[in-house]
C-alpha cells in the first residue's frame, strides 16, 4: 500500500481509524476475502461517520482512484450475497 486513505480533517481520531478500517476491509475483500459479517460491521460504522450518499460516493471514488479497489462493488456484493460467509472480489 503506497497511498494515503481519503480522510476529512474534521473527523475525530476514532472516526479516522474506523474509516481506514473500512477501506482496509475493502482491500482484504479484493486480496484474500473477508467475513461478510465483519465487512458489513465496518461498513455500518463507516456510514455512521459518512451518512451522506454524495459524500460517501466522493470519498469512495477517491479511494478507488488511488487504490484501484471499488468499495461500491464490495458493498454491493456483500449486500447481494446475504447468505455468503466470505466476501471475495
Automatic annotation (TrEMBL):
Top-level taxon in the UniProt lineage: Bacteria
Coiled-coil features, chain-numbered ranges: none
Gene3D superfamilies, alphabetized: BH2638-like (1.10.220.80)
Pfam families per record: UPF0223
HAMAP family per the UniProt record, alphabetical: UPF0223 (MF_01041)
Family, similarity comment: Belongs to the UPF0223 family.
Protein name, UniProt field: UPF0223 protein GS18_0203940
Amino acid at each position: 500500500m503506497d497511498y494515503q486513505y481519503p480522510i476529512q480533517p474534521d473527523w475525530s481520531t476514532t472516526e479516522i481509524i474506523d474509516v481506514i478500517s473500512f477501506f482496509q476491509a475493502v482491500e482484504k475483500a479484493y486480496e484474500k476475502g473477508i467475513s461478510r459479517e465483519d465487512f458489513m460491521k465496518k461498513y455500518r460504522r463507516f456510514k455512521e461517520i459518512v451518512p451522506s450518499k454524495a459524500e460517501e460516493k466522493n470519498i469512495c471514488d477517491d479511494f478507488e482512484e488511488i487504490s484501484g479497489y471499488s468499495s461500491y462493488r464490495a458493498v454491493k456484493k456483500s449486500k447481494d450475497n446475504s447468505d455468503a460467509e466470505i466476501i471475495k472480489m
